[in-house]
Amino acid sequence: MIIAIDGPAASGKSTTAKGVSQILDIPYLDTGAMYRAITYFVLENKIDIEDASVLKQVLDDIKIRFESENGKNEIYLKGKKVTSLIRTTAVTSHVSRISAVKDIRISMVKLQRSIGEENGCVMEGRDIGTVVFPHADFKFFLIADIEVRAKRRLKDLAELGETKSLEILMEEIEKRDKMDSSRDYSPLAKADNAIEIDTGVLSIDEQIEIIIKRVTNK
Ligand code: CDP
């Protein structure tokens, strides 16, 4: 079974998708973490993504894998644990530009499909219901007011030891959503048959329950 959960930045996708995957006991995949990992690698190694042959080499060599360790989802890039490193402001401010590159998307989508097809998946991202799995069994699109989303992200950043004003964060999130929605190749979009859920007015348990009810028909 494939459950696609899409939506803009900080709309509650990760928390919801993780909860749903635990209850249904099916794997969970955070596709945003994959684009963040590539972005981290590109920045760290000063890769010129405009150079097609260099980019091809990077994509051929890159190894991204997820491991569940003590109940926490860890992401490894070429054997290095990058779970926290991919959440920094530096990565966040470049990820939309890098994830818009067609060859990067082709490579990531291929990987996402193979992971999803293996054992089924709750997969979250921007283009899961539209491009990665257009025939997903269930599709959800999460939204929330910009201020609600920025407040959530402020909390996440505080845990990483970063401080930022709410206003700046709201601007950054809006800018990223705009770039993600307006790119040519697989933009952030709600699939026609996706069920929209406004997480701004729900608790985490409530948003998880809405999905579980739909999926199990109970
Ligand atoms: O967690 P947050 O909402 O900040 O974003 P994320 O899910 O970690 O995704 C980070 C970025 O990756 C997005 O802003 C998109 O640019 C890109 N992304 C994408 O292009 N396609 C996906 N399926 C998932 C993420």
Quick rundown:
This protein is α/β, with parallel strands linked by helices and 218 residues long. The chain has helices at residues 13-24, 31-44, 52-61, 89-99, 102-119, 128-132, 146-159, 166-182, 204-216; strands spanning 2-6, 28-30, 64-69, 72-77, 80-81, 121-125, 138-143, 195-198. The strands form 2 sheets. A 5-stranded parallel sheet has the order 2-6-1-7-8, with helices on both faces.
CATH architecture: 3-Layer(aba) Sandwich
DSSP strand content: 15-25%
**Per CATH, what is the topology?**
Rossmann fold
Structural class: alpha/beta
Radius of gyration: 17 Å
Please write the CATH class name.
Alpha Beta
Q: How is the main sheet built?
A: 5 strands, parallel
Number of domains as seen in the coordinates:
1
Whole-Å distance between the termini? 17 Å
Indicate the overall shape. globular
Share of helix, binned: 40-55%
The unique ligands bound to this protein are: cytidine-5'-diphosphate
Tally of strands:
8
CATH superfamily: P-loop containing nucleotide triphosphate hydrolases
Instruction: List unreliable stretches of 5+ residues.
Output: none
Number of contiguous helices:
9
